[in-house]
Amino acid sequence: MAHTDSHGRPIVVVTGMGVLTSLGEGQQDNWAKLTGGISGIKRISRFPLDHMRTTIAGTVDFVPADPFCAPELSQRLADRAAEEAIAEAGIGTKGNFPGPLFLALPPVEIEWPQRQALAAATGRNDGVSYADLIAVADQPQFRDTYRRFLFASVGEHLADRFGTRGNPIATSTACASGGTAIQLAVESIRAGLSDAALVVGTDASVNPESLIRFSLLSALSTRNDPPEGASRPFSKDRDGFVMAEGAGALVLESMDHALARGARILGVLAGCGERADAFHRTRSSPDGKPVIACLHAALADAGIGPEAVDYINAHGTSTPENERMEWLAVSTVFGDRAGSIPISSNKSMIGHTLTAAGTIEAVFSLLTIRNGRIPPTINYHDPDPALPVDCVPNVARDAQVSCAISNSFGFGGQNVCLVMRAEPV
């Protein structure tokens, strides 16, 4: 007998997870530090910080990438997270994963060190265009640079290494990318296009260009000292997010496929909701309507009502506008229960992992369900009266969590909400 959900679709389960953040590598290390209220935010040591307003980030410095470039480190983080997830799932054979790859990856562009090397190779002192750089990059000594920055190649590398089926599907929907990749994988399994899928979200974008761009948007915290106190979601004195790096990976399967091979089921991907608001290039609509619709869509997709939700893993970036919008949406959808549902933010400890956030926080949400322990929101010492949330302040909380929602809201109005459960409805 086929295992189907309330809509008659195959139930999608999680059988393997991998994670790597500024807190460390692997589920065990990350979970111990996350529930211990430990921060991975520190002063940046990767490049000079002269004249920078923000000098901190959640960098992953224990994975070598020398000389540094964002797609190279993103690939290495993805390798490690995917390896952990596949090993836990015990699926396929080495280099032969029985399903497609869905990848969340940040935009790739030529970075300053590579631009300078290419510009020098043109032999010109001024007036060097981007087209000139691309033309020079096609010379033999720059072939690796050309391949990496023109074609990215991260997805192709992962597909080759792990032997996933078909062409890799790479998504870049800003800070909702990880959630989007998970949703695409869920839809693939529900539609019968695959029995299993590998989902990876990765981001190693802490470089001078990205830091300066976010700083010019006034999006970053400038509370540099102490670094671990900078990210403070839901606090009245929050002043911006902290950039961070990391990777998360999930092995998803139909329940029938997982049971047939005797796999251990870690949780259920019960529902996905996605809405785009196109309100502004960077801001979400302050009336919260698209996020409200996204939450409703996720609950409807899971076949449950708001009363079934025990915990919300908030987007919780530590930016004033974002958290007002998120609270407006949550309070609208959950009504009188909104103030009593635990709503904590992993970003208070790991920072904002941008493209990877949706996959990393899905892993943490599933660990919350499995371990019956809710990670705290640290640095919560100055409550915002406009946000009467139960943010699990400063200290982790033991609680039975059967159903959790993980929110991801990105620049450009990309919104994804995921519903995860311990067991099928």
What do you see in this structure?
With 425 residues, the protein is an alpha/beta fold. The protein has 2 domains: 12-108 and 152-421, Thiolase/Chalcone synthase (Peroxisomal Thiolase, Chain A, domain 1), CATH 3.40.47.10; 113-150, no CATH class. Helix content is 34%, strand content 18%. It has helices at 27-35, 70-89, 112-122, 130-137, 143-151, 154-162, 177-190, 208-216, 255-260, 289-302, 320-334, 347-350, 357-371, and strands spanning 12-21, 24-25, 42-43, 56-57, 101-104, 169-171, 196-203, 246-254, 267-276, 311-313, 343-344, 373-374, 397-398, 403-410, 414-421. Strand 14 and strand 15 form a beta hairpin. The chain is globular and about 65 Å long. The model has no long low-confidence stretch (mean pLDDT 94).
The ordered string of helix (H) and strand (E) elements is EEHEEHEHHHHEHEHEHEHEHEHHEEEE
Largest sheet: 11 strands, mixed
Q: What CATH architecture label of the largest domain applies?
A: 3-Layer(aba) Sandwich
What is the class of the largest domain in the CATH system?
Answer: Alpha Beta
Rg on CA atoms, Å: 21 Å
| Proportion in β-strands | 15-25%
The tally of beta strands, per DSSP, is: 15
Report the uncertain regions: none
- Average pLDDT, all residues: 94
